[in-house]
Amino acid sequence: MKDFVHLHNHTQYSLLDGAARIKDLVRQAAEFGMPAVAITDHGNMFGVVDFYKACRQAGIKPILGCEVYVAPRTMQDRQSGLDDKLAHLALLAKNERGYRNLLKLVSMAYTDGFYYKPRVDRETLARYSEGLIALSACLAGEIPHLILAGEHDRALKAAGDYRDLFGDNFYLELQDHGLRGQAEVNRALVEIGGRLDIPLVATNDVHYVTKEQAEFQDILLCIQTGKTVNEEGRLRFEGREFYFKSGDEMARLFAEVPAALENTRIIAERCQVDLDFETMHLPQYRVPSNHNPDSYLRELCYRGLERRYPRAGEEIKKRLDFELGVIAQMNYSSYFLIVWDFIRFARDKGVLVGPGRGSAAGSLVSYVLAITNIDPLAYGLLFERFLNPERVSMPDIDIDFCFERRGEVIDYVFEK
User: Fold this and answer.
1) Using an 8 Å Cβ cutoff, are 351 and 408 in contact?
2) Is there a contact between 37 and 6 (Cβ–Cβ < 8 Å)?
3) How far apart, in Å, are the Cα atoms of 287 and each of 305, 342, 411?
4) Are the CB atoms for 415 and 361 separated by under 8 Å?
5) Do residues 86 and 134 lie in contact, with contact meaning Cβ atoms separated by under 8 Å?
6) 144 touches 174 (CB < 8 A)
7) Residue 123 in 3-state DSSP?
8) Helix 182-196 vs helix 152-166: angle between axes, to the nearest 10 degrees?
């Protein structure tokens, strides 16, 4: 079955839990002839860019996601023994809006919700649910957990709540690793899906690529939990079934629910996120109302020119105009204004700041703005080594700040 798509996969970025290296996982998907494959690491998106590039290189569609941790109450609640009991939920980005919302959720999970692990809550999920597909996750998901606890009414309600939150983008996830209670959970999920009209999807909770790598993943768990391999009662994965199975293997496992297999392809077709690695997303510096970034940079430079060269001749002005023209042509005026601004702030506040180093010393613009302190004309330094329209690359100005107070400069840039 080549149309099957793995939608629940943990790479090496599921730290000390996933043993599936991205390049190996993608290569296996390509060898199986699968049209797409997902990444859903625990609580983070550290591997998304590497995964995206590997998939594109292999000619298969990357599906970008994350298995988030959902707090039992709110992200702000931090009571030991209660708020550390987390539920898993797999989220996949359908489009650019979904990808941005997923980035926001995962970031907030660390900055606002971290307690033992990065956490989100229902309220935050509702706020950033647009463009996301949600899967009910493994046995550690909220609904499977309630089923195993014998609380079927609460499981039904939770499924309804997630359906209301995500609409037709919510799927009940069936898995079969031969674990205790998994068959019971699957039967209940099929029943809930029928009662609430929630579609099913088959996944395999991949943590390693081949069955033989189960041992490596077990060692990672030992490192994570501070246990030894032979220690009794430690956390371990039962069996060796958490590997990247072929479509035919998955078809045999879920032969009785073909719709759950078909839905993997349907979900994959609904997901389309294209990452742009070419465009420079530079912030725009806010200039006075009677200026644009190019004109304001020019005004500042000519003010600085009077200080650096009180009797500047036409040759110096010609060099300055040439550099300003190149900077404007390459849309880097805001970049220079930002660097000038935070250096000025540091000096005004008495924060020790070294002048710019490296090829930036060849720029007259940098010199008249007091970003650098070496006269490039006196030493015959070339601007083209720093910025050249024939070799498009970001300007690189190395600047040193006093380590004791550089946080003030960082805070200033952040706030501005």
Assistant:
1) yes
2) yes
3) 20, 14, 20
4) no
5) no
6) no
7) helix
8) 50
Token pair for residue 397? 């100005």
Report the C-alpha gap between 65 and 102 in whole angstroms: 8
Question: Per the structure block, which two tokens stand in for 151?
Answer: 């609380």
Alpha-carbon distance values, 201 to 43, 52, 250 (Å): 21, 23, 11
Has residue 13 got a pLDDT over 80? yes
For 213-237, letters b (16+ CB in 10 Å) and e give: bbeebbebbbeeeeeeeeeeeeeeb
CA 156, CA 161: separation in Å to the nearest integer?
9
pLDDT at 312: 86
* Distance from C-alpha of 58 to C-alpha of 64, rounded to nearest angstrom: 16
Is residue 96 within 8 Å of residue 132, measured between CB atoms?
no
- E strands, 285-347, are none
Q: Which residues have CB under 8 Å from 312's CB, separation 6+? A: 305, 306
Cα–Cα distance between 126 and 98 in angstroms, integer? 12
Residue showing tokens 């072929």:
246
CA distances from 326 to 229, 302, 320, 340 (A): 62, 16, 10, 18
- The three-class DSSP label of residue 42 is strand
3-state secondary structure labels for all residues of 183-233? HHHHHHHHHHHHHHCCCEEECCCECECCHHHHHHHHHHHHHHHCCCCCCCC
The neighbour count for residue 109, using CB atoms within 10 Å, is 24
Q: Alpha-carbon distance 285 to 339, whole Å? A: 10
Examine the pLDDT at 355 and tell me if it is beyond 90: no
Residue 391 has pLDDT above 80, yes or no: no
Distances 139 to 7, 43, 143, 204, 294 between C-alpha atoms, Å: 16, 16, 8, 12, 58
Question: Tell me: the pLDDT tens digits for 141-195?
Answer: 999 999 999 999 999 999 999 999 999 999 999 999 999 999 999 999 999 999 9
Structure tokens at 361: 């010393």
Amino acid at residue number 17: D
Per-residue burial over 132-143, b if 16 or more Cβ lie within 10 Å, else e, is bbbbbbbbebbb
Q: Is 292 helix (H, G, I), strand (E, B) or coil?
A: coil
